[in-house]
Design brief:
By secondary structure, this protein is mostly helical. It has one domain: Growth Hormone, Chain: A, CATH 1.20.1250.20. The chain is built from ten helices and no strands.
Length: 229
């Protein structure tokens, strides 16, 4: 084996050891929280949609079957989203995909907030679902690649628990908005809040680093080392 290759492999192994054996820092916790945003938004979005459906039906007349399509569109959109999030992350990097996911969710919520037809609602929910599904794949990969091995499994479980936090947060916010405004189309406010939350995650994720393991897989050991230093 050529000396250059042996040196490269040695550096690679040293960087992996730094990642796997590091102490859990506040930086790690922040990265975990930001990368877990899709799980939080999943619970948040499902709860807001469930509470908004009876209000939407009163505001926009529709057949029961169309209401059912709207209710299931988020889950339907998540299926292709979950299948493309991983490959896109492998090709372009974890950070860019996590940013794009929040943009897709934001755009989908915008469609819903401005909807004057059932098709806009369906399109918006499909986009939200696609963004969330893709975020599950990209976020889980990022978390697995950047966290120390000792804490990796428990924080992966913690990511799943954020869905419940999203459920509770969405329910409380929806009830508060209904109580405060009591508008016929107060359901639009739900999606406006969803836009705001997705925007907060998008801006916060601008400060994420790229996954060192992904950089190493592209031969960018120096960049990976700078992130870990």
């Amino acid at each position: 084996m050529p000396e250059a290759v042996r040196t490269q492999n040695k550096i690679h192994d040293q960087l992996l050891s730094v990642i796997d054996n590091a102490k859990l820092s506040n930086r790690h916790k922040l990265f975990w929280l930001l990368a877990s945003g899709g799980t939080f938004l999943d619970g948040f979005s499902i709860m807001l949609l469930g509470i908004s459906l009876p209000l939407i039906k009163k505001d926009i007349p529709m057949l029961p079957v169309i209401l059912g399509v709207i209710a299931s569109s988020l889950v339907i959109g998540a299926i292709p989203g979950s299948n493309i999030g991983g490959p896109l992350g492998d090709k372009f990097g974890r950070k860019i995909v996590l940013l794009l996911n929040t943009l897709v969710i934001l755009i989908g919520a915008g469609f819903c907030a401005m909807a004057d037809s059932t098709w806009m609602l369906i399109t918006g929910q499909l986009l939200i679902g696609a963004g969330i599904g893709s975020d599950f794949a990209a976020g889980a990969t990022f978390i697995a690649e950047i966290l120390p091995v000792k804490y990796r499994s428990r924080l992966m479980v913690g990511t799943i628990s954020l869905q419940s936090v999203g459920f509770i947060s969405g329910g409380l916010i929806a009830l508060l908005l209904i109580k405060l405004f009591m508008l016929k189309d107060s359901w639009r406010l739900f999606f406006e809040v969803q836009i705001f939350v997705a925007l907060v995650f998008f801006i916060s994720r601008l400060f994420l680093v790229e996954s060192p393991r992904w950089l190493m897989s592209r031969g960018k050991n120096l960049k990976a080392g700078l992130i870990l230093s």
